[in-house]
Write a structure and sequence with these properties.
single chain; alpha+beta; 6-stranded mixed beta sheet; 21 strands; 37% strand; globular
Length: 409
């Protein structure tokens, strides 16, 4: 990674990178709905934004799109073709970017790039906070102070209010404000004294990468190997032992993940070395619904949560029972894992409990610990997990990054 850094930063020739903004308030498999993008140019270390635009405009420049895959046809109303903005269906970021790139290569607005990065709202908020909690773009002063309407950072509400609220006139360049904000953040950071912001910003970027709010796919093979060794590529990883990854896609069209709360019980029942697991997900949306009447110009942030749910577990695991899915649970294989798939809905000011019981494909010997890896979904932020063994709570923690533990049996 270190060897190729000068090249990545345009030492001999300028490099361009596609930066995708994933809105984690509308959660999708790799971290959020892909709402806008920018072309970042780095020439001899000098960084500039060459272009920023709405992902819909990029989508509109693609003709002859393929038929939408089954999950979109089944759960996303009135969408019949595969769009760029919906192409991040694989929980593995690199696999999703392969699908994205196949479509992107057909776009009339395509710009040749040397890699793709994705960021979400957590990156924006944490960066603004470092920059004296004040960045001005498009005539708006963006801060991280709490907005009571959404119980979120004022910067996020201002973005949604300007980008998502319907108006009775043609609103050109809807996502232009996002590009202006990115440019303003970069300008304030890069034109300041290095002593003032660069240290805290560097630390913030490390934290955001560790927590999967920044994902990177570089086309230079050596550099990408470095990125993946740092677990910065959003990959579904192999693991020798028990494995858990809960992956969710918000197909409601609203920013419901701004309001949703989730708790997960990961419970083990061990008899004669056989391990039966019961996974319980408790959903809670304690907030009232938004005005989703588009004709009145309502800002539809909170509505019914329509959650395409996939649970990745060790390959060979077998389903025993489940409750809470709106559809019959199915079992398949993907990325070297067994996948249990269902669909859950939660209304505003509502609660929902989903449970699934399954057997692991291996046994444990008496006294031996069970290695466990829990992989965090990009875009999620501190869902509460509790590990339970034979009815006894072992630990409770917010899942902020991938976690490996050894459970004592």
């Amino acid at each position: 990674m270190v060897k190729v850094l000068p090249s990545l930063f345009g030492e001999t020739e300028a490099k361009k990178y596609l930066v995708i903004f994933q809105n984690d308030k509308e959660l999708r498999p790799t971290g959020g709905f892909m709402t806008g993008y920018a072309i970042l140019k780095i020439d001899k270390g000098i960084i500039s934004i060459e272009k920023s635009d709405d992902i819909y405009n990029l989508d509109d420049s693609i003709s002859n799109k393929p038929k939408a895959p089954a999950p979109i046809l089944k759960y996303l109303p009135k969408v019949y073709t595969l769009n760029l903005r919906d192409s991040n269906l694989s929980p593995d970021f690199i696999e999703s970017m392969k699908t994205f790139t196949e479509l992107y290569d057909k776009a009339g607005l395509k710009v040749k790039v040397d890699g793709i990065a994705a960021i979400d709202t957590s990156v924006l908020v944490s960066t603004i906070k470092v920059l004296d909690d004040s960045v001005t773009a498009g005539g708006i002063n963006f801060t991280t102070k709490n907005n009571t309407t959404c119980d979120c950072a004022q910067a996020i509400y201002d973005l949604e209010n300007n980008i998502s609220r319907p108006v009775n006139y043609v609103k050109s360049d809807r996502k232009g404000l996002l590009g202006q904000l990115l440019a303003a953040i970069m300008t304030k950071a890069l034109t300041s004294s290095p002593k003032k912001y660069w240290g805290p910003l560097f630390q913030t970027m490390i934290t955001q990468t560790n927590q999967k709010h920044i994902l990177v796919n570089l086309f230079d093979q050596g550099a990408q190997q470095g990125v993946e060794s740092l677990n910065a590529a959003g990959r579904i990883r192999g693991f020798d032992g028990d494995y858990l990854h809960i992956n969710e896609a918000n197909f409601s069209g609203a920013k419901v993940n701004m309001f949703m709360q989730e708790e997960v019980d990961n419970a083990y029942d061990i008899k004669n070395g056989e391990i039966t697991k019961t996974l319980t997900i408790r959903y809670k949306n304690p907030y009232p619904p938004s005005d989703c009447n588009l004709e009145r110009g309502g800002l539809c942030l909170n509505a019914e949560y329509r959650d395409w749910l996939r649970i990745y577990v060790p390959k060979g695991s077998t389903l025993v029972d489940s409750k809470g899915s709106q559809v019959k649970m199915t079992t398949s294989e993907d990325l070297g894992k067994t996948v249990f798939e269902g669909f859950v809905t939660v209304r505003p000011k509502g609660i929902k409990t989903f449970t699934i019981t399954y057997k692991l494909p291996f046994k444990v010997t008496n006294g031996s610990p069970v290695p466990l890896m829990i992989q965090k979904q990009p875009g999620t932020n501190g869902n509460i997990y509790t590990n339970i063994v034979n009815g006894k709570t072992v630990e409770t923690f917010p899942l902020l990054t991938d976690r490996e533990v050894k459970l004592k049996i």
